[in-house]
Write a structure and sequence with these properties.
The complex is a heterodimer of chains A (about 300) and B (about 230). Chain A is of the alpha+beta class. Chain A is built from ten helices and six strands; from the N terminus they run H-H-E-H-E-H-E-H-H-E-H-H-H-E-E-H. In chain B, a hairpin with a 5-residue loop joins strand 1 and strand 2. The chains are: A alpha+beta (about 300), B alpha/beta (about 230).
């Protein structure tokens, strides 16, 4: 193929987008709409994933010691906890630190209730905060720590807490959301492909006659196919570029106004620049490929005349 | 130029359109194909530009055995055959100029040659001033002129015209015939299927009559021979 012919195909491809006015707009819209839905779900799925990770990493075991436990005993327990292979980190929080944190977490409201509780009459016990390597295993680790009391005559561990119920349901939910999210994203991608190919098929069906005329004049299949191919790429690119812009602009706007907590956990959403490349890039590449794919498949059908 | 030997054509639905056609059309001839509707004229024309393949028999056009042509080679044979139809078959979204130029782009002609030659043939058919008009903005006769310009732009050896005046009023039809005669005079073979008695009987040429799939008459300076 001569260079001038390549240039001609590009010229024709661009011109065709304009010549087919409404049909081009229909194709661009269908790409924009389906990719937009897909993009929204991608953003949701990514954020759920991120939230799940955060919840995971914030999942912790609190080990409360009896009030009369001495320092040596506390150190012994700390060593025992560290010996558990699943344990990543153990931090000792003494009672005065605990009281300070408690007061902070209660804020203004709790100030009155906690008034009068100072170092001397601190009602809180000393405690350990234990992190596991795999947050999903904290239930298992907690049981092992509880078991220390069985071999300890003083029974120094008062209580082991890890929000058993709430953490376990939360894991179930986040896992479900991750799986369902993946399923929905794949499903939407397939749906988008179907919708787009249908639209492009319609636009090409309308041009069946044109294709047959081109063949009568002696155009080879590849000569006919190229401008369609380029037209498809342009439509796909324009459609997905629109989608990506709206999606990311909107996301930035929403994120700048939102932050929230679920129970005790502080939730940070993904920032715009964390998702921009992934979501924008995926949408644009996918859209362009869809445009090319749709037009190539559809033209091929009418070239066999 | 065109050589058909014992050509039979049966369509997949079972209708037999041609039964044992033998004909030779020489270089620079002007031939009318006449006969009742459904007699096989259109099939005869379609065989020439390889829209259809014969069920049986040999056909060669311009030296190509086109019955045995590979699919990929078809475009290259068509480039040597100009086709003109009753319904013009112009690309609706392209201007008159672009329609004609398309036939040259297909064979990768350099752009400036396309420009010169396209304007040249548009001038020949008298439509230079309407080069930028879309088909929908042109009259039937003008559209047919564009189609003729497209058919001749690559200097084909043969022009196949299937009822080129079928949709046109008598006056416009004569204009088209003058043009075809001029093209024939410049050395192009023309095969034209027609129902136009007046044209055939006035502008005397070779007449081949097809009835029920067979050639029933072949006269050098023939007449139309049918009422209407």
């Amino acid at each position: 193929m001569k260079f001038s012919t390549v240039a001609r195909h590009f010229r024709e491809g661009f011109k065709n987008v304009g010549r087919n006015g409404w049909m081009s707009i229909a194709s661009i819209s269908s790409i924009t709409v389906s990719l937009f839905i897909l993009g929204v779900f991608m953003l949701l799925a990514l954020n759920v994933n991120k939230i799940a990770d955060q919840v995971d990493s914030q999942a912790q075991i609190s080990v409360y010691l009896e009030l009369d436990t001495n320092k040596a005993k506390a150190e012994e327990i700390e060593r025992s906890i560290k010996r558990i292979p699943e344990v990543k980190n153990v931090a000792f929080v003494d009672k005065s630190e605990g009281l300070k944190r408690f007061k902070e977490s209660m804020g203004e409201k709790g100030k009155k209730a906690l008034e009068g509780y100072e170092e001397e009459n601190n009602p809180l016990p000393d405690m350990f905060e234990v992190d596991a390597f795999d947050p999903q295993k904290i239930g298992f680790v907690a049981k092992q720590i509880e078991a220390f009391n069985e071999t300890d005559p003083e029974k120094s561990i008062m209580e082991v807490k890890y929000g058993k119920e709430s953490i376990e349901t939360l894991f179930k939910i986040t896992n479900a959301i991750r799986n369902i999210g993946l399923f929905i994203v794949v499903g939407l991608a397939v749906m988008a492909m179907f919708l787009i190919s249908t639209t492009i098929k319609m636009t090409i069906l309308a041009r069946r006659r044109e294709i047959s005329i081109m063949k009568l004049v002696g155009a080879t299949n590849s000569f006919i196919r190229w401008p369609f191919f380029i037209e498809g790429a342009i439509i796909g690119f324009v459609g997905s570029f629109l989608t990506a812009s709206v999606l990311l602009f909107g996301y930035g706007k929403i994120m700048s106004k939102t932050s929230s907590t679920i129970g005790l956990y502080q939730i940070n959403y993904l920032s715009l620049h964390e998702v921009g490349f992934v979501v924008g890039g995926t949408v644009i590449v996918l859209g362009t490929l869809l445009g090319v794919w749709g037009s190539t498949i559809s033209v091929r059908k009418y070239l066999k005349v | 130029m065109i050589d058909m030997q014992d050509i039979w054509k049966t369509y997949p639905d079972g209708t037999t359109a041609l039964q044992g056609i033998n004909v030779v059309i020489d270089r620079n001839e002007f031939v009318y194909i006449v006969g009742p509707s459904g007699a096989g004229k259109s099939t005869f024309m379609k065989l020439i530009y390889r829209e259809e393949v014969p069920t049986k028999g040999q056909i060669s056009v311009n030296g190509f055995n086109i019955g045995k042509l590979k699919h990929r080679k078809i475009p290259f044979v068509r480039r040597n055959i100009g086709v003109i139809f009753q319904d013009y078959k112009l690309l609706p979204k392209l201007s008159a100029y672009e329609n004609v130029a398309f036939a040259m782009e297909v064979i990768e002609t350099p752009r400036r040659v396309i420009r010169r030659r396209t304007m040249e043939v548009l001038e020949l058919v008298g439509l230079k001033h309407k080069a930028n008009s879309l088909p929908a903005q042109l009259s039937g006769g003008e559209q047919q002129r564009v189609a003729i310009a497209r058919a001749i732009v690559n200097n084909p050896a043969v022009i196949v015209a299937d009822e080129p005046t079928g949709n046109l009023d008598p006056e416009t039809s004569w204009g088209i015939m003058k043009l075809l005669e001029e093209i024939n005079f410049r050395g192009t073979t023309i095969v034209m299927a027609t129902h136009n008695k007046e044209i055939v009987n006035t502008l005397r040429k070779r007449v081949i009559a097809i009835e029920r799939g067979s050639i029933v008459r072949d006269e050098v300076r023939g007449e139309y021979g049918y009422e209407i």
